[in-house]
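Hi F.,

I've been meaning to write this up properly since the lab meeting, where we talked about keeping a consistent format for the predictions we share between groups. The idea is simple: the sequence comes first, exactly as it goes in, then the structure tokens exactly as they come out, then a line or two of notes. No screenshots and no reformatting. I'm using this chain as the first example so we have something concrete to point to.
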Amino acid sequence: MENTKKEVNEGLEETVNSVEMNEQMDTAVSETYDANQIQVLEGLEAVRKRPGMYIGSTGPRGLHHLVYEILDNSIDEALAGYCTHIEVEILPGDIITVRDNGRGIPVDINEKQGMPAVTVVLTVLHAGGKFGGSGYKVSGGLHGVGSSVVNALSEWLEVEVSQNGHIHRQRFERGAIASELEVIGDTEETGTLIRFKADPEVFTETTVYEYETLQRRIREQAFLNAGLKITLTDSRDAENITEEVFCFDGGISSFSTYINESRGLTPVHDTPIHFSTVKGDRSAEVSIMYNDSYNEIILSFANNVRTIDGGTHETGFKNALTRVFNDYGRKYNFIKEGDKNLSGEDVREGLTAVISVKLTEAEFEGQTKGKLGNTDITQLVQSMVYEKLSTYFEENPSVARTIFNKALDAARAREAARKAKELARRKSALEGNSLPGKLYDCTDKNPENCEIFIVEGDSAGGSAKEGRDRTTQAILPLWGKMLNVEKSRIDKVIGNEKLIPVVLSLGTGIGEDFDITKLRYHKVVIMADADVDGAHIRTLLLTFFFRYMRPLIDNGHIYIAQPPLYRLTKNKKHHYAYSDEQRDEIIEKLGTGYSIQRYKGLGEMDPEQLWETTMDPAVRTMLKVRLEDAIEADETFSILMGDKVEPRRDFIEKNAKFVQNLDI
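Output, unedited:
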């Protein structure tokens, strides 16, 4: 079986669970199936049994999600108008504390449950102030499982509530009550403090929090709630305590400015364009700022929850934006009679937009709340953007013309790309009847069995060609400097001689014409040298796939080969090391009398060596490229491959400790 070093799938845990269930079913075939086989999970036991159902995964992503759930409860207090300051601290031992100055979780007895309301909130699923009544008119905690899930997945959790002149405290261990609610002091303040330690029995991969991950989330929440103060402190190192205070009076306008600045993008107008509206119990606000790039960045939120898959608010925004541009162009004859309207892609080129809506009874899709489903929000956002952006264009003609000209340039480039594709089709290129001459194809025609190695250089390509399994492995050598698509429009990409062989070989087309059903190989493997040049080529290819063939990444088809760095030989027996640490371990075992070879490039390996170290599915190691956070990935590509030097330098200096196995 192939040894995949980092195949971290979103549904990995669910897959494991389904295998377990299938094995149980197979075993149960010969057993009696009766009432005794029905298992009832009490209290929070279901959460500990299947944590992935509630927090997505038990890896780093799920670990940080615990903090988000508690933070979101404090944010909801701010939305309700009762909280002005939230403090988040990472204590030694990776213990998390979240404190707010809101009203405090109620401590009086809940008549239905017969115990204090705070105990109910922390031990009963679907218990909270967000399912009716007047506790919260707007909230991101739709499902009401946040606090209790965190409690269930913590080794221990303590809550302190300041309310009615007293400080109340209670402790829980793995979701179970460890002490009764008690008064431990007096105070004139109000608020809630929750302190917890993630359970290592659940989070077996790691229980160590990444400061930068929490920092991103907290900064984002401060932008979305203008004037709210959030303090983040990392006190794990007593000699190097880090503390940051996030508070942005400009709200999402400051957010759109920050996005452009952090990515090194140059705005084409001085200040963000900001609109807001309130209709009954629903509100919406949008901040728009165009920059000199060719990509769009749209971040949408509903009740402070990022809707990574969009939804009705994004639909309303996009519809209105396209309509405003075309109506404006027709009115002032910038779009001539008989000319085509601008497309949505044209008017969103170089756009940075933040959309935030707040509403009661928000309808999200799934526990991860990735997409908003409230249909009436479409009209609210659409009407606001159309009316207010139209007025803005009339009142600010110079800004309007600058932005409009950018959209016209995008339309011309799109038309040039269309003509280039049509010309290529007439030559039978993009229809799949002609494959690039450099491609050494495999004989198996079932895409599920096939893989293609995109190899740096003709020399390495020759070794890969000779050493491969010709039945299922295809080789595509690349040579010369590739196009940086981050700095290029689609028309330049379509005609690029270095990228077209990749497009032709894969068979899917690119951009809006991409069709994953035509993919000829289900594993697309980037195989480059383990040096700086190889890393650059990998980044260029990944940027291309992310910008123009994104479904390849979304569907798990992109891999990165891991060739060895060293070959150590003793008594005619070869040992391969993939890192300096592994090299040292092998040397220690071999003792004396060995020889060592440092591979400077793939071309130094003969076909047999390349096969047995890098291409043989039985023993090879590969990295699977997975997209965990699309917005973060988008930002990283903008920083690394954009025009500005400073953001790139800052990124490299900050992340230099993660660089491994590069011959710098």
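Notes:
DSSP finds 21 helices and 25 strands in the chain.
The mean pLDDT is 85.

If this format works for you, I'll send the rest the same way.

G.
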